[in-house]
Amino acid sequence: MSLQKMHCNIATTSIANVIWEDLWTVKKELTRSNVDGSSRLLLGNKGFVQEHILPNVIETGGGGFDVNVRDVDTGSEHMLVLKLRKSSNSYVLTKNWVSEFVKRRELEENDEFGLRWNDENSRLEFTLLRRKL
C-alpha cells in the first residue's frame, strides 16, 4: 500500500470517528463508582434525562422508570431502571448496570462512553467510545 493511500485511509478513519462521536448527546468517562460494584451509572446531564428520557418511559412501582438500553456495539438490549437520587438530586441507571454492562463489556474506570435517546425506537442507546489509556 502506498504512503499516500495509507494517509488517506487514516484521514478517512479519523473523520469517521469524529462524526461518530458527534452523534452522542452525552459523552462521559466512567468513574470508579460507576464500575466498582455500586450498581449504578450516574447520569450527570439532568437536562438530557428530563428532555429525552422521562417523557418516553413509564414509572415503575418503586419510584423508578424502566428504560430499554441498546448496546449499539454488540446489538444487545437490556432493561435498566432510571431513578432520581434525592441525596444528590441526580439521575442514575441501576438494576443490571453492573452485570449487563460493566462485567459483560469489561468496562473500567476512565473508559469513555456515549448515550443518546432514539425516539423512533423509544430507547436509550449506549456505545463505548474509547477504552482507557
UniProtKB/TrEMBL annotation:
Keyword Nucleus: yes
Principal subcellular localization: nucleus
Superkingdom of origin: Eukaryota
Keyword DNA-binding: yes
This protein's UniProt keywords: DNA-binding, Nucleus, Transcription, Transcription regulation
UniProt cross-references to InterPro entries, sorted A to Z: B3_DNA-bd, B3_domain, DNA-bd_pseudobarrel_sf
CDD domains: B3_DNA
Subcellular location: Nucleus
SUPFAM superfamilies reported for this sequence: DNA-binding pseudobarrel domain (SSF101936)
Residues in coiled coil: none
GO cellular component: nucleus
GO molecular function list: DNA binding
Matches recorded under PANTHER family: B3 DOMAIN PROTEIN (PTHR34269:SF11), TRANSCRIPTION FACTOR B3-DOMAIN FAMILY-RELATED (PTHR34269)
Protein name: B3 domain-containing protein
Classification of source organism: Eukaryota, Viridiplantae, Streptophyta, Embryophyta, Tracheophyta
